Amino acid sequence: MPKVEIDVVPVGELVTYAQTALRLARGGGRLPIPPHLAAAQSHNPYADPEDPGLLVARIGDQCVGHIGLIPGRVQIDGRNWKVYWGSALFVDEAHRKSGVGTFLISRLLSLDIDFVGAEMSRTAERMWRLIGLTKVLGPRTVYSVQLDRVRSAVGVRASLPQWMEPVGAVIGKAMEVCYPFLRRLLYLALLRPFRRSLRGVTVSPVDQLPPEFDDIGTPNDSEKDDHPVEFQRGLEWINWKLAHPWILPEDQVSPELSEVSDQYYFDLSRPLFALHAFTFREQATGTSRGYLLISVSASRRHRHTQLKVLDASRDLNAELALAMAFRVGWTYQADLLVFSEKLGRRLAETWIGRRLLRREVHEYACRPRKGSQFEQNLHRVTVDICDGDYSFT
Question: What's the pLDDT tens digit per position in 154-188?
């Protein structure tokens, strides 16, 4: 087997490295990080230039695997400590049985950092456990409403006996035709329990969240000892997401990047990708009620449009958040809606929510630095939908 080299690229050098990688990808190699993502990572407000930002496995000049690192913060009893989220773990299919993944993770674990792995898919979990990374963080609970299940009549067709399959096919075609109308009816039913929450509230779309929203929901000193350990996402972090999206609309992709899009394993662009931030204030007093961050996207792999509630201030009323999410979903006629545990639990209290909601639990492998505050408080750590790379898409 040819020798595998592992490059550790600091955050401060990501932009330069990405330009070189783009040139090499034109020669047939894998692209470990596109230039726009490198630029975004270089503006991470919680990163220092010397922080590791990317590990690349290469044979000669060709990239055969990579894993990204996103420097972040965890708040423990009122103090912030640096952690590193794993992102975009990939090994080229031709090298998946040659130990490249093990080389990558072994080099990562030699960095002596508080590492939080990406979501534990079955493939990644085998790799983590193979090298002894067995500590699990989480779980994170995500709720979703998949409206387009109605389009395919999944429940009805699954309940039919085999001899009635032709009838099921007819039902499926009929539901396909009726789906746009049924989707509108479902949105009206979803919004109805929450629409009154918007009365007396001014909702403003914003490009960046204003400073007055920075400390909403921050625990006071008397609460800190009992408060769960959370990953920090201050206003500077959220505004960074808004200013530097990871995914581009297709019409914003440069010709040179489009040329190598197949060389990057993850999505460079989508036909639709939009981030929407909203602030909420009392109409009578102007008092801040909170903020909400939503993404809307569509990909060519799937036939649906997806809405994700990416983030919200801690004290934002769940009814307000759900009402706004359904209004945005109606605008785009989104087929799949994804919510945090807090919002999912509130929606589950409604008749329509109990029938449409699906619940998923995700776990994360992690490797705390020995003796660190993160390791000592691991049992107190909570993970939300807004944490890690999940909240950038």
Answer: 444 455 566 666 655 666 667 677 888 889 999 99
Please report the pLDDT score of residue 268 as a whole number.
83
Q: Which residue type is seen at 308?
A: K
- How distant, in Å, are the alpha carbons of 13, 209, 340 from that of 236? 22, 9, 21
Please write the tens of the pLDDT for every residue from 80-118: 999 999 888 888 888 888 888 888 888 988 998 999 876
Bridge partners of residue 297, in order along the sequence: 273, 306
The whole-angstrom separation of Cα 103 and Cα 56 is 10
Predicted TM-score (pTM) of this structure: 0.87
Sequence-distant contacts of 374-379: CB under 8 A, at least 24 apart: 374/74, 374/76, 374/81, 374/83, 374/114, 375/114, 377/76, 377/229, 378/135, 378/137
Q: Which residues contact 351 (CB under 8 A, 6 or more apart)?
A: none
Share of the chain above pLDDT 70, in %: 84
| 330 vs 191: CA distance, rounded Å | 9
Render 133-196 in DSSP notation, one character per residue: ---EEEEEEEEEEETTHHHHTHHHHHHS-GGGHHHHHHHHHHHHHHHHHHHHHHHHHHHTTTGG
Indicate whether 152 pLDDT > 90. Answer: no
For residues 321 and 308, what is the distance between their CA atoms, to the nearest angstrom? 12
Residue 238: both structure tokens together:
């959220």
**Rounded Cα distance, 128 and 115, in Å:** 12
* Burial per residue of 259-295, b for 16 or more beta-carbon CB atoms within 10 angstroms, e otherwise: ebeebbbbbbbbeebbbbbbbbbeeeeeebbbbbbbb
Please state whether 51 falls in left (phi above 0), alpha (psi between -120 and 50) or beta.
Answer: beta
Which tokens sit at 330? 């109606």
What does the angle CA 387 – CA 128 – CA 116 come to, to the nearest 5 degrees? 25
Q: Which amino acid is at 68?
A: G
Comparing C-alpha atoms, which of 392, 390, 393, 376 is closest to residue 74? 376
At 332, which helix (H) or strand (E)? helix 318-332
Residues β-bridged to residue 116: 85, 366
